[in-house]
Sequence to fold (163 residues):
Amino acid sequence: MKTNSFEFTYTVYESLEELEEEDAALLVAARAVTSQAYAPYSNFFVGAIVKMDNGELLSGTNQENASFPAGICAERTVLSAASVVYPGAAINSMSISFRSAASESKHPISPCGICRQSLLEQEKRQQEPIRIILGGQTGPVYLIHSASHLLPISFTGEELRKS
Ligand code: THU
Fold:
């Protein structure tokens, strides 16, 4: 018997002002795009921006549905958009922010489990890490250096290819 451990390093900034200019711009854009979210049921408005390796930006927001499970998170909305608009291009970074009717947006939120799985799929596909920038409308900002760090002991397509 043995015990394994998993450890990862992420960077915590006190506020947006401490970020590199390009990352700050991505978070500003994620904050702003929350106003385009369609979230009439949760009143939890999420925005995500991707920067592609060709420098282009795309945005996504959560899209809810009266049949709740049909709703989709901002992260997966923008992952799909990236795959359609820039097929074959790699995603360099994703910024994520939110606004909520219930509480002040002054801390980061991080992607849900399904979105982590989708981020990992894209990362495996492009064989380049996706940087993830997390922040509320104000407050501290986290920089995760690779999506894979958010999903240890993950299930991947490699399992399906094993004979
Ligand atoms: N949501 C996102 O879009 N991204 C996240 O990282 C967490 C949750 C959405 C799903 C749903 O529309 C609402 O936020 C409340 O869960």
About this structure: The chain is about 25% helix and 25% strand. The CA atoms of residues 132 and 163 lie 34 Å apart.
